[in-house]
Design brief:
The protein is an alpha/beta fold. The protein is 43% helix and 16% strand. It has 9 helices and 7 strands. It has a 7-stranded mixed sheet with strand order 3-2-1-4-6-5-7, sandwiched between helices. Strand 2, helix 2 and strand 3 form a beta-alpha-beta unit.
Length: 261
Amino acid sequence: MPRETRLVLIPSYNTGPRVLQTVREARAAWTPVWVVVDGSTDGTDALLLAEAERDPGLEVMVLPRNGGKGGAVLHGLREAARRGFTHALTMDADGQHPADRIGAMMAASRAAPEAMILGRPVFGPEAPPLRVQGRRISNWLANVQTLGGGIGDCLFGFRLYPVAPLVAVMERHRWMRRFDFDPEAAVRLSWHGLPVVNLPVPCRYLSKEEGGVSHFHYARDNLLLTWMHTRLVLGMLPRLPTLLWRRHRVAPPPVAAVRRR
């Protein structure tokens, strides 16, 4: 067993040089940090491998072809489980997620090790209004699909999972491999009874001048989300008796809010 059973897991695809700053900030906050390079073609695999040679707290795994964010996370989770890690904090490589909140997320996980710790984004004025408004639909649907399971934001990728249940859920389903990973993971883990802890987390949308990179495609990814929510609604129907029983007979899942002092 590793001395520290929680790790930071960063999937990366063509993020450009900005990924190095993200990784260094994460390493300043936590050890170990793993990066899964998801078939990148921009040369960042070489940059990250060179960084790992200088930093024993960083490990880089390079996948031969792009399989999507969820596929990259699953690759890292399987290896984490094999080595005895129990929890993984996922964060994006593009600088949107604040590394200085890693410690608070890890502390919340230690207090509730059976829970998934979900970051709840606090957007700045630079956030695209269409993206901010659009995610409200997904959040509403996620809470319908879980009958009020307490998911504060189903799309925000800064979150901490217990490794074993997430690997088990992903290996039972062929989906959850691309942009649909974050919302479907939260809903399916809620269906399996994992409680939710929501923590407010600042979120930045970096400009191109700041090195910001986005692979979100409105048409393609919104179609993917539409199909995902359709199958989750259909999957909710046979689970309704269990979800109703939990809602009325079991204490509600813990919800925590941590504010910067």
